[in-house]
Amino acid sequence: MKKLMSLALALLMVLSLAACGGSGGSKDSDSGSQPAQSSQPSGGSSSSDAKWPEKEIKIIQPWSLGGGPDVITRQIASYSDKFLGVPMIVENHTGGSGTIGMNDFLEAADDGYTLFCCNGPLFSLTPSFISVDYTIEDITPLVGIRITEFVILTQASSGITDIQGLIDYANSGHTVKYATTGGPGNDSFTMISALFATLGIASEAVPYDGGQEAINALVGGHVDVAIGSPPTYRDYVINGELNCLGTFIPEGLDVEGIGHIPSFKDQGIDIEFTGMDYFAVRSTVDTEKQEILRDFVLKVYAEPDFQKFMADMGMAAWEADSSEILGMVASQTEAMAKYIPLVQ
Fold first, then answer.
1. Angle, CA of 191, 193 and 195, to the nearest 5°
2. Across 269-289, average pLDDT
3. How far, in Å, CA of 126 to CA of 95, rounded?
4. Sheet strands (E) in the chain
5. According to the model, what pLDDT value does residue 50 have?
6. Cα–Cα distances in Å, from 286 out to 103, 118, 221?
7. What is the band of 185 on the pLDDT scale with cuts at 50, 70, 90?
8. How far is CA 203 from CA 51, 199, 206, 223, 228, in A?
9. Is the dihedral of CA 153, 230, 318, 125 positive or negative?
């Protein structure tokens, strides 16, 4: 009887241990499954759904501090935190008629975090004067910034109020000194030089780093003539310090606070030019990122405060898309074939 009792107790202990072992195995299995479940992205999202942008965006500005493109791009960049949730900074990489900035831009990663403030002459004009390693295929225009409305100006104290007055001044034995933004390969240099060549005016170019510096040189009496766009000259004209002689825009130009500025074409001079600035990215940047950036700029343009900012400078934002910008570059290239021989 004692032996039977001992066997029964032993069997009971074995069954009890087996039950505990089964329970322990179940816990190990459950705990092992937890890491596998937690490794899955929440909501079933993938890496392609990650929010973009996630860090600071840079705009490379190939033109000098304080000029029209610089002032406008900095104002646009100030809205980046509001619409993109990340900061946007502007860096000035000047020199070489914009080619230094272009080369730095093309060396940056094609991840969408670097934009370029581009213009048409970097493709339609500059390669005729400077050896370049880029083509239009290297970039994708995102959205326009502004139409470049070049105007020829003189000091009010000079008494020169129109083109005929400038011709008379030159014919009286003066060599006209004129301020330009940059040298050969730059659109402002080419157009004012072509104008004087067309008119047969003896002239001497005095290059400056940017549009504001050129206007400052005119206001200071260091040159007789300067070329500029509304953000740089508007206040001086309104205050009576400078005179507008004409614009290269074929239909003329209406500037808030100044009124209508006649074109050279309307004055019987066969010369015209419409420039522009626009944002671009590397052509290999993901199209979804391109669309996010373009949408950001258009949101800024719709802001009443930004519209007032542009109006106060006598300008308006240019909402052109990629195809319109490329079309203007092609038109500029055709026009420049006429003007380049006049200044080479």
1. 70
2. 95
3. 12
4. 57-61, 88-92, 114-119, 139-148, 151-155, 176-181, 203-208, 225-228, 242-247, 253-255, 259-261, 275-282
5. 66
6. 20, 19, 50
7. confident
8. 56, 11, 10, 11, 18
9. positive
Residue pointed to by tokens 């370029």: 116
| pLDDT value at 162 more than 50 | yes
- Joined tokens for residue 216: 């400052």
Residue 227's closest CA among 277, 266, 176? 176
Residues contacting 128, CB < 8 A, separation 6+: 185, 336, 340, 344
Would you put residue 242 in left (φ > 0), alpha (ψ -120 to 50) or beta? beta
Q: Which of 22-36, 179-193, 307-321 has the lowest mean pLDDT?
A: 22-36
The Cα diameter of the chain in Å comes to 143
Average pLDDT estimate for 2-25: 41
Q: pTM (2 decimals)?
A: 0.79
3-class SS of residue 283? coil
Distance between CA atoms of 244 and 238, rounded to whole angstroms? 11
CA distances from 301 to 52, 251, 285 (A): 21, 24, 23
Sign of CA dihedral 82, 315, 228, 200: positive
Taking the C-alpha atoms of residue 342 and residue 198, their distance in angstroms, rounded to an integer, is 8
Instruction: Give per-residue pLDDT as tens, 218-253.
Output: 999 999 999 988 888 999 999 999 999 999 999 999
Alpha-carbon radius of gyration of the chain: 33
